[in-house]
Amino acid sequence: MLKRSLLAAVAVGSLMAAGAAQADTVKIGYIDPLSGAFANVGDSGKRHFEFMAEKINANGGLNGDMIEIVAFDNKINPKESLIQLQKAIDQGISIVTQGNGSSIASAIIDAVNKHNKRNPDNPVLFLNYAAVDPAFTNDRCSFWHFRFDADADMKMEALTDWLATREDLGKVYIIGQDYSFGKAVQAAANRMLAAKSPEKEIVGDELHPLGKVKDFSPYIAKIKASDADVVITGNWGTDMTLLVKAAADAGLDVPILTYYGGGLGTPTAMGDTALDRVMQITEWHENVDGLGLDPMLDEFEGEHEIDFYYYRVKNLMEMLQKAAAKAGSTEPEALARAFEGMEHETEVGTITMRADNHQLIQPLYLSTFSDDVARDVEGTGYGFKTNHRIEGPATSTDTTCEMKRPS
Amino acid sequence: MMQPGFLRSLLPWLAAILLLALLPSIFPSRTAFSVMNAIGIQLVFALSYNMLLGQGGMLSFGHAVYFGLGGYGAMHAMRLIEAGSLDFPVFGLPLIGFAVGLIAGAVIGWPSCRRSGVPFAMISLGIGELVAAAGFMFVSIFGGEEGISGDRMVGVETFGLSLGPIKEVYWFIAFWAFVAALAMWAFTKTPLGRLSNAVRDNDQRAQFIGFDPQRVRYLVFIISGGFAGLAGGMSAVNYEILTPETFSALVSGAVLIMAFIGGIRTFYGPILGAALIVVMQSLLSDYTEAWQFYIGILFMVIVMFAPGGLAGLVERVRLAIQRRELAEVAPTWGLGVSAALAMTLGMIILVELVFRWREGSEPMELLGIPLSHSEILPWLLALLLLGLGSVGLRQAPKRWGRLLRGEAP
Amino acid sequence: MEVIVFSALNGLLYGLLLFMLSSGLTLIFSMMGVLNFAHASFYMIGAYLAFTLSSGIGFWPALFLAPVLVGLIGALVERYGLRRVHSHGHVAELLFTFGLAYLIEEAVKLIWGKLPVPYAVPDSLDWAIFTLFDTTYPAFRVFMMVVATLMFIGLWLLLKKTRAGLMIQAALTHPQMVGHLGHNVPLIFMLVFGIGCALAGLAGVIGGALLVTEPAMAFTLGPIVFVVVVVGGMGSLTGAFVASILIGLLQTFAIAIDASLADLFALVGIQVDPKGELTGITLAQIAPMLPFILLVLILIFRPRGLMGARES
After folding, report:
1. What are the two backbone dihedrals, phi and then psi, of residue A353, each rounded to the nearest 5 degrees?
2. For C29, phi and psi rounded to 5 degrees?
3. H or E stretch at A255
4. What radius of gyration do chain C's Cα atoms show?
């Protein structure tokens, strides 16, 4: 698959090269799972990047240079990710992107920091499109890391704000994956519920192994027994699909507040059982009205037979193009300085890359799985429908980041 | 008194020093250094594994436990050095890995070495799974999913190596790989090393001459654990990260495959296996999606037809040269080798065709010749090569079989 | 109460799935002394074949055809592979099946891809069979329990009441004797291996739809099946059955119970930090480890297993 994507990108690149004389290529290393339990998620992300690379290339590329996405399979293992990162650097790649798994992102941030310290002439820039552990833009912030998704705390703020308005949902069950992100969600939910709605009772607070549970029925039995009114989960990938599948099998009939309810494969697995029940908090969804994105969505879905999901990949690539133009270069340090404080006009409004901690500030949408939608997901006939929009500035949180910039 | 035989047995080691010194000039790229460092780590690991399987006759499915524990020991030491509470050179961290591996071997080996054969293999599997699960539970020790990472550029420098650039890490790896291999070779010459062979071949006979086979197995197990831990320590410095996945059955399986493909009946077999598998893993994977499939086929072929592994084949050729019968056996070997090559080629074409047909990707090119999966001809070619190869292998006289088994022709 | 009932149901279900897998393995193990590392791989092949077949000919024909195909593959593997290494001893056989497991996983990835395939419960079984404490129970799960129970009864009758079964029983205790009596031992071996694999294939047809059909499915279940066979005791079908149910219940109940070490200490009056690293470990967290603790203990203290006839 790696070779194929490479060739596809080269083919596109060479077509474009006819227009722009002697264009070079800028390679972006895409390090995500392409095999194993989360392969479908990684594969979907790769298609988004390739699609957007074509768009950017057709629109002049990075100062005339063509973008090429080179995929590396990290098997969702931190150590393997470092080996793949090394491989990417060996190939002369200086921009990498990754999103699936905060444990992976953590290892990559660490490795990129070390590499850049040891090889100041050959630094690497890390553009994070989905790993949302708040630590990355707080205690562990790095000059070489930029995040284009709202972090777990920002999303939890939005979820708990909504929950506080629903007095009928008194008993909360929290379930998540046993690793840094799952724990961050768990901690944020506990902290924010205690602060915003102390009257609510947390009847369950559980972590399960990441990507290893095949049958969630025992967990669902526990949730049912706890008499919960609402479930909060940060699960993604197969863990999300199987959780909802088991909930549907057992007829668990409560709202499920999710980060990734719209994640690949999940809507199909949930089907009608999730109607008006599963909610998600995202930076965008296909049924945000009046953005004029439909032609692009149709094109993507026609080409790849999956839904366009990562709006932030579009933001990331557009901002990368803008940063390259502003810096007049594609050198990592110049790009990083150009990203800091950058404002970008998008269909949903102005988004801003914070200079102090490299976190993108963008509006968020809380939406519900519904049958009353214009665009359905995964051919299910159902899609997500906006409950309300949270403006960008409202999602901004304080940061403990002390950014160290190269002098 | 130095015997000439002893001196001659040192010759390969001198050659190894020369090779280690020359390698960086032959392969100066970053990629080459990554690959060579990985080989260095894996060859120590595979040699330590072979102390069990090849020399002691103990099939283990849980050797990653000692590799991982040694690595974690070294990593925690590295973090202590960074925090300034431990005064120890990073260069010496593999020794800490060795010590942790020894202790782990002593603790775990005590119950498991009471059995041999299949029950021993099952116990090692069970313990391997237990430790793998525990790795994810004790976050303060093993770091959970994220694992723990450290910085190797701390503490005092040894031999003027800062260990920052990958090239300097190469010298570190080369040093330890050499020292560990030499030590393990020396072990085979000790009375205990010899005894473990006796226990492997016939533990009752060993018992009759007054040695407790259980005790011999236990001691070998401890030392093998130590060297696995040393390899883990090398890995900790090279990658600067350890995750609980290090304990997984995949790692244990990989070391078994390396040792066995290389050949478990000779000392240097696992070195060949480690080099081959690491090269396949890092280079072949760029060319084909099916590289693991090829490793699997290779393993099966060796289990079924050549239990001596690659080293067994090398030994057989050497024997023929020594006996000056190369000219005599060359024609049969030639036929056998070309038949095997034809089969291999046929199989590769077939596998790649299947893969591309499923993926619907662009046609492959082999040696500059395009082979399209949508045409009938390449499929026929693959089947023809397979057929020719198998006929050739059947025709090659039985000597071929003897060669593979490492017996006299 | 709810939790107990559903944990029991889920545990029973999981245990029966384990039994479907381990029955074939224990058959092979008892007859040939081969611990087939690749057994769960045949389970995986069964699931994938059923996925491919059911999209063409429907679920019900696939339910019968897929296991037969898996059995054929198994018989071929025995005839042209395992028989070759048999003379090198059990360790060589173990290595062979280990390599086979690896090879099958890679072959599955090449043929069906690395992503999970959408093999789902057939529509004819996709409904709620009963409702208990407001929780519905899917019909497919009940169907699976029925199949597994029939399998147990069928195998038990085969072993105890037929000539072929008697031969297998005899081979268990007196392997040489059976050969001396003039039975075609190699043929019996091939048949036993084929049937064992077919049973795994049947488990795959059902397990694949119940759980997820993906290339890692063999790897995740394989070791547990080993545990069942070793714990149950070499060659004992009843032992395998009891051990399967035991492990299924053990793992499911462990998830349901929130007790931690600290709670345990509190019972006897010692107060420790309930959120501590060691004392805060809950039974749910160690659930996946329990079978392996059992395995190691059994191997050390009772190598015959719960109901085994002889040590390996």
Report:
1. -90, 115
2. -60, -45
3. none
4. 21
- Residue A36 has a pLDDT of 67
Q: How far apart are CA C69 and CA C71, in angstroms?
A: 5
Among B146, B359, B362, beta carbon nearest to A7 = B362
| pLDDT 10s digits, C42-51 | 999 999 999 9
- Among the partner-chain residues A1, A78, A89, the one whose CB lies closest to the CB of B243 is A78
Task: List the structure tokens of A83.
Answer: 């080996």
Say how far apart CA A26 and CA A44 lie, in whole Å.
22
Q: Inter-chain contact C277–B122, Cβ cutoff 8 Å?
A: no
How far is residue B341's CA from residue C163's CA, in Å, rounded to a whole number? Answer: 48
Instruction: Using pLDDT thresholds of 50, 70 and 90, give the confidence band for residue C82.
Output: confident
Q: Kindly provide the residue ranges of all beta strands, DSSP E only, lying in A320-376, ordered along the sequence.
A: 343-346, 349-353, 360-361, 364-370
Q: What is the percent of chain A where pLDDT is above 90?
A: 44
Does A90 reach chain B within 8 Å, measured CB to CB? yes
pLDDT class of B231 with cuts at 50, 70, 90: very high
Comparing A17-31, A78-92, A283-297, B89-103, the range with the smallest average pLDDT is: A17-31
**Torsion sign across C-alpha atoms C139, C140, C143, C144:** negative
| Token pair for B81 | 């050095």
Contact (CB<8Å) B145/A4: no
Chains that touch B (3 or more CB pairs under 8 A): A, C
Lowest mean pLDDT among A137-146, B127-136, B370-379, C226-235: B370-379
Please, are residues B109 and B222 in contact by the beta-carbon 8 Å criterion?
yes
Cα–chain center distance at B135: 23
CB B152 within 8 A of CB B75: no
> How far is residue B187 from each of residues B1, B190, B205, B218, B219, measured CA to CA in Å?
20, 5, 22, 15, 12
Burial B121-132, CB ≥16 within 10 A → b, else e: bbbbbbbbbbbb
Q: Which amino acid is at A275?
A: L
pLDDT for the residue A11: 45
Chain C residues near residue A214 by CB distance under 8 angstroms: 211-212, 220
A59 class by beta-carbon count within 10 Å (0-12 exposed, 13-18 middle, 19+ buried) = exposed
Calpha distance B148→B146 (Å, rounded): 7
Mean pLDDT of chain C: 80
Using the Cβ of A388 and the Cβ atoms of chain B, whether some distance falls under 8 Å is answered with no
Q: Determine, for residues B299 and C303 on separate chains, whether the beta-carbon distance falls below 8 Å.
A: no
Burial of A139 (0-12, 13-18, 19+ CB in 10 A): exposed
Token code pair at residue A105: 């992102």
Which residue is it, tokens 């976050």?
B139
pLDDT at site B398: 58
User: CA A334, CA A336: separation in Å to the nearest integer?
Assistant: 5
Interface touch B30/A89, C-beta < 8 Å: yes
C-alpha distance from residue A127 to each of A98, A110, B125, C238 (Å):
7, 14, 40, 57
- Shortest CA gap C206–chain B (Å): 25
Tell me: pLDDT of C206 over 70.
yes
CA–CA separation, C300 and B108 (whole Å):
12
CB pair distance less than 8 Å for A249 and C252 = no
Taking a C-beta distance cutoff of 8 angstroms, is the pair C202, C151 a contact? yes
Query: Given an 8 Å threshold on Cβ–Cβ distance, is C296 in contact with B111?
Result: yes
Chain C residue with CA closest to B307: the answer is C92
Determine the distance in angstroms separating the CA of B271 from the nearest CA of chain C, rounded to an integer: 19
Within 10 angstroms of residue A169's Cβ, the number of other Cβ atoms is 18
Amino acid type, B395:
Q
Does the structure show a pLDDT above 70 at A63? yes
Contact between C10 and A221 using a beta-carbon 8 Å cutoff: yes
Q: Which of A90, A107, A111 sits opposite B146 (nearest CB)?
A: A107
User: Can you tell me the distance from the alpha carbon of C284 to that of A208, in angstroms, rounded to the nearest whole number?
Assistant: 8
Which residues are bridge partners to B318 per DSSP? none
